[in-house]
Design a protein that fits this description.
The complex is a heterodimer of chains A (about 450) and B (about 425).
Chain A lengths: L22 E5 L5 E6 L5 E9 L12 H9 L8 H10 L3 E6 L3 E9 L3 H13 L5 H18 L3 H14 L12 H6 L2 H11 L6 E6 L3 H12 L10 H4 L14 E5 L5 E9 L8 H13 L4 H9 L3 E8 L7 E9 L3 H14 L8 H14 L7 H13 L6 H10 L3 H11 L6 E6 L1 H4 L12 E2 L5
Parallel strand pairs in A: 2-6, 7-11, 7-12
Antiparallel strand pairs in A: 1-2, 3-5, 3-6, 4-5, 8-10, 8-11, 9-10
Helix pairs in contact in A: 1-7, 3-8, 10-13, 10-16, 11-12, 13-15
Chain B lengths: L5 E4 L5 E6 L5 E8 L13 H8 L12 H6 L3 E6 L4 E8 L3 H13 L7 H20 L6 H9 L14 H6 L2 H11 L5 E7 L3 H12 L22 E6 L5 E8 L7 H12 L5 H9 L3 E9 L5 E9 L5 H18 L3 H17 L10 H12 L5 H9 L3 H13 L4 E7 L11 E2 L4
Parallel strand pairs in B: 2-6, 7-11, 7-12
Antiparallel strand pairs in B: 1-2, 3-5, 3-6, 4-5, 8-10, 8-11, 9-10
């Protein structure tokens, strides 16, 4: 056996080809689109129901209505109780997750393959036939009000709320999806019933089933069980896409502060209203983000964490939605280094536009990192089901996963530099600081962001 | 149901385990060192985890960050430390397996030449930030510190939590790093798993090639557990929280010891899902709590069974205290119903199956094989472990709950809003944490 050559590291060999599982579709007579992904691995089935219409459709005075509706879906169906439903889930060894995002509701269920039919029936009962009973509503409402109280102690949640508020103002994405004590207290079970009737309908919805059976068998099982979902007349897709309303270009304040006396750390956010997921620049943005703050080895993390020791970690992300989502840099730093950390972060974010644009090596690194690691996202049935649902969510073609790597590799240095100048606009940035300003606020006025506007949102 | 594997032990004592799964063109490299915060000494708490951070800062033949070459190659990587062990993993494209092994072996064999004061100080700052972010600046975040120091005497290796005390982290020196490395970071105290798109004989050859040259180290000193124990106290901690929360904690049998699995199921029966006893009674029906939790925190030297409930507005912690103890006593006297037991067994079985889906990362197949190898000396313990749960009877649950929980005094900790010590359970004594 030859000795290891420690003078140079092994150069990775070529990537082994990876074929993405084929997705099959079937449109049911009631308008529901079913997608199936066959995955021969472990006897597990994952299913996802995607219904367009998320927290962005809440009327301002009813913030939290959609997320309350989400909470009530698994509180019993067909007249059997919430406890019965919980028991049913447990008996299937299942795990139900109801996620209400800005633009859509996504219900995910995972179970053992032998319970495929039972799982499909259960998910249908949850989504289509929830009881939405008075007494359950009242209990869930009370729990929500308690959670909102506890939110006051979560500095990251305060920073996220303030950031959305300052960026989006009267746009639907400004609203806290979880609601406020005031808005939740005013909701009624009748509000929930109405919005459920309006949003949970088969046309425009997508059901994905991924599991260890032939795709046709998965489609047949889904059709057998979901064909009974009654269609509703009329197309209200426009009403459901309130996130696509035009957001403000500039934040209400460049610098906002939320004072928390005695806080051990400062939560920081910097960012702006960005683009929608439909942007043709998506791959370029992904690469820009990888270089700036999307990976451990990104500029921001290497500076703020690995060089300065200001934080446990920092990251950036383009949260691209059906409407124009935010770009955000987020981190939690020691109170005493609040201002130096902000200065470094602002400097890195500005430098990547002009002074120190993305280099050829950084681009190559980001491309190989994302491209070579791509198959990791398709290992489990949950990943496959959610992946197929995300295509429907963002109206992407069936060939999207197949085309992703080639289109990522086509992005040029000029393109990624140009997108940095376009997508990062300091004049449009909002900076939010949640922390102890008495101990960490000195020097905030030296950042050139103007006077700090105190925010203190009612939760 | 199983995870097929091959295991060899190199001449230097390194265990190497290989599992083939070519579902995706990736290989998971997973390396455990049998060292955790239980191996620290008083005055240097938090050191094992701080050391873990230094493992990512470069080694003699690659004195740069550990992340860069691997992320460039499409890999994902991380590490973690708990009381009992430290693990490191990479999930890399098949073609980058050599690279990952070269790097893992370089830091196992040649970490110290690359160590500098500057790196050390930087990572200490990072860890102090991690502690503030995840414990001090988080509601109820210091409860785990209070529980550990009040359940175990100061000479017990579980007296402190893994993140450690800030003053101890500040007191640590480069010499501590050198001694720790020499004592614990060598092949004889490690277990390497390669799981994924790799052929077994090739994987074994690669492991021998990259790690075989590293000398065997000394057998680490045994961990000494003092005989003395502490009388369970009734404590209170003031924190920046809106709602008071009550914790009850008991000493229970160690991981894999008789009673461990039954108590794990007891925790599920008490708090997993809306039909669990505590959730149903306290949150759903009586509405005196906003959340409940129960778990058997299984560890190598001894375990901890912990119940917690957060009071709904205006509800006293005494109300929760009585209800929680009543639920424990009822389970100890009557045991679970057949329905309850079958429900939690199905859930456990499903969780075992779900865990077979991923080769890498925390809890993936590579990590499981190493856990079973380090703690059971049997990488293939998967099906035995599952049987440990499916074999539990209702009377096992009843008996173990009676023996370890109902029959023993609990440590009681009230976490209350600052300035509201009056909300704690009567007779509580303030506990000092930092």
């Amino acid at each position: 056996m030859s000795r290891v050559d420690r003078t140079r590291m092994p150069v990775p060999g070529p990537a082994r080809s990876f074929t993405f599982p084929i997705m099959r579709r079937r449109l049911l007579a009631n308008g529901l689109e079913v997608r199936a992904v066959s995955h021969h691995s472990v006897p597990v089935t994952a299913m996802v129901l995607l219904v367009l219409g998320g927290t962005a459709i809440d009327a301002p005075a009813q913030a939290g209505l959609m997320s309350m509706t989400a909470d009530l879906l698994d509180e019993g169906s067909h007249g059997t109780s919430a406890l019965d439903m919980s028991d049913r889930i447990a008996r299937l060894g299942g795990d139900l997750d109801v996620e209400m995002s800005h633009d859509a509701a996504m219900l995910s269920f995972i179970t053992l393959d032998r319970y495929l039919d039972e799982g499909l029936v259960l998910l249908r009962d949850v989504a289509v036939h929830p009881n939405l009973a008075d007494h359950d509503f009242e209990r869930v409402q009370r729990l929500r009000l308690e959670r909102l109280r506890q939110l006051r102690d979560l500095p990251g949640a305060l920073a996220d709320r303030a950031f959305a508020h300052v960026l989006y103002q009267s746009h639907p994405y400004a609203q806290p999806g979880f609601g406020t004590s005031a808005s939740i207290a005013l909701l009624s079970v009748e509000d929930v019933r109405q919005v459920h009737r309006r949003v949970f309908r088969p046309s425009g919805a997508t059901l994905v089933v991924a599991g260890d059976r032939p795709a046709e068998a998965l489609l047949d099982a889904a059709e057998r069980i979901w064909a009974s979902w009654h269609p509703v007349d009329g197309d209200d897709t426009g009403v459901r896409d309130r996130g696509r309303l035009e957001p403000p270009t500039h934040p209400s304040h460049a610098l906002s502060t939320w004072h928390r006396p005695g806080a051990a750390q400062s939560e920081l956010r910097i960012g702006q209203v960005s683009l929608s997921r439909a942007t043709p620049d998506y791959q370029a943005l992904l690469l820009l983000n990888a270089v700036l703050g999307g990976q451990f080895i990104s500029r921001l993390n290497m500076n703020l964490r690995e060089s300065k020791g200001y934080t446990y970690g920092v990251r950036t992300g383009f949260d691209l939605r059906r409407g124009k989502g935010p770009f955000v840099m987020q981190t939690s730093v020691g109170t005493g280094v609040t201002v130096p950390a902000l200065r470094e972060a602002l400097d890195e974010m500005q430098a990547i536009r002009e002074a120190r644009p993305v280099t050829a090596d950084e681009l190559a690194r980001a491309q190989s990192s994302v491209a070579l690691g791509y198959p990791r996202g398709f290992e489990t049935v949950q990943q496959l089901a959610r992946g197929a649902a995300s295509l429907a969510h963002h109206e992407l073609p069936d060939t999207y996963f197949e085309d992703f790597v080639p289109s990522l590799m086509r992005v040029t240095l000029d393109e990624v530099r140009a997108v940095a100048r376009r997508a990062l606009d300091p004049a449009r940035w909002a900076v939010v600081v949640v922390g102890d300003l008495d101990r960490g606020g000195d020097g905030l006025d030296s950042l050139g962001l103007g006077a700090a506007a105190p925010v203190h949102l009612a939760l | 149901m199983d995870i097929p594997y091959t295991k060899i032990t190199l001449d230097n004592g390194l265990d190497v385990i290989v599992h083939e799964d070519s579902q995706v063109p990736m290989v998971a490299v997973n390396l455990w060192y049998h060292v955790g915060s239980k191996n620290e000494r008083p005055g240097r708490t938090g050191f094992a985890h701080l050391f873990e951070h230094l493992m990512f800062e470069g080694s003699a033949h690659h004195d740069h960050g550990y992340f860069e070459p691997l992320q460039r190659a499409g890999g994902q990587l991380n590490g973690s430390t708990n009381t009992d062990r430290t693990n490191y993993w990479e999930v890399v494209p098949t073609g980058a397996l050599d690279l990952a092994l070269w790097m893992e072996s370089d830091r196992m064999g040649y970490l110290l030449p690359a160590l500098t004061e500057a790196k050390f100080n930087n990572q200490r700052d990072v860890v102090l930030n991690e502690r503030r972010q995840n414990y001090e600046n988080r509601p109820y975040g210091l409860a785990s510190v209070a529980l550990a120091q009040s359940l175990f005497p100061s000479t017990h290796p579980y007296h402190w939590i893994t993140i450690g005390q800030p003053d101890d982290l500040r007191a640590a020196t480069l010499d501590d790093v050198r001694t720790f490395f020499a004592t614990y970071y060598h092949p004889g105290n490690a277990s390497l798993t390669l799981a994924g798109d790799v052929e077994t004989s090739h994987a074994l050859d690669l492991a021998a090639r990259y790690f075989g040259e590293i000398p065997r180290g000394p057998v680490p000193p045994p961990v000494v557990v003092p005989d003395e124990s502490m009388a369970p106290a009734t404590l209170l901690l003031e924190d920046r929280v809106e709602l008071p929360r009550l914790y009850l904690a008991w000493h229970t049998p160690a991981m894999f010891a008789p009673g461990d699995a039954a108590l794990d199921l007891a925790a599920d029966i008490l708090s997993h899902g809306k039909t669990s006893r505590l959730y149903r009674h306290l949150v759903h029906e009586r509405r005196v709590a906003t959340d409940v939790s129960a778990f058997q925190h299984s560890r190598e030297l001894s375990s901890l069974f912990q119940l917690a409930a957060t009071a709904a507005a205006g509800v006293s912690l005494e109300t929760l205290h009585d209800a929680m103890l009543d639920a424990v006593r009822l389970l100890a006297s009557e045991g679970p119903t057949a329905e309850e037991l079958s429900r939690v067994s199905t859930q456990v079985e499903a969780q075992f199956v779900y865990r077979l889906q991923t080769v890498g990362g925390f809890g993936g197949k590579g990590d499981q094989l190493n856990a079973y190898n380090v703690f059971r000396h049997t990488p293939g313990y998967f099906s035995d472990d599952l049987r440990r749960y499916t074999g539990v009877t209702a009377d096992d649950v009843r008996r173990e709950v009676d023996c370890w929980l109902a029959g023993q005094p609990a440590l009681t900790l009230s976490v209350v809003p600052k300035g509201r010590a009056d909300l704690a359970v009567a007779g509580s004594v303030p506990v000092e944490v930092s």
